[in-house]
Amino acid sequence: VITLKSRYEIDKIRYSCGIVAEILQHLGEMIAPGITTMDLEQAAEEWIRKKKVKPAFKGYHGYPCCLCTSVNEEVVHGIPSARRVLKSGDIVGVDVGVIHDGYYGDAARTYAVGTITADVQRLLTVTEESLYKGIEKAVSGNRLSDISHAIQRHAEAGGYSAVRDFVGHGIGRGLHEEPQIPNYGPPGRGPKLKPGMVLALEPMINQGRYEVEVLDDGWTAVTVDRKLSAHFEHTIAITDDGPSILSRLDG
Ligand code: MF3
Ligand code: CO
Fold it and tell me: Containing H/E element for 158?
């Protein structure tokens, strides 16, 4: 069942999402050639501690960190490492979740490190746009797969592919609640969207083929063809006035 959240609950989720947005903003300002993904993890951990919230991912099925940091051909769930030094031309996806007072917030974005090519910038732009295409369809009366379809359509129109093995999700008292939200599929299928649904939409878009595999660390998902992948995620609430993006700085 997809639980509908009250105004009070949505405000709780909005609070957690606000911290997540601050962390992503702060890390975005740090990202530069020479820093490591562990530097990002440490900065996030400190922010989380100062704000008196808890990390959502650390300990989740044994995941070791507050952040997922996924570089270049890494799609999602890259584990921060002091050995992973970012260099100019890289892209790095940063995914972070927190919980406060029983409610989760979750968001991600992919950053350029130093100078990236126009080609790579286009991957980032189209991926973020595909997230917004999905958000536009998150309105009462539509069906769930209208979101999925809009994401896939925009990614493929740009010459890219949408990852199939990972999905967006409902969020609230759980990090992953129903429904699962694929980033591909035909329109008009699945449950009707209703005010009070809170969803984490998270397209993962590949430069090449959509297939991914998980490395021997048990977490890091990479593209099978080792071409680049980008990831953007927002937590949104469906309201009578349309979608409300909770994980924005001014959310
Ligand atoms: N945003 C991702 C998700 O919703 C991050 C989860 S990482 C994990 O699944 F470690 F918590 F699995
Ligand atoms: Co998520």
Answer: none
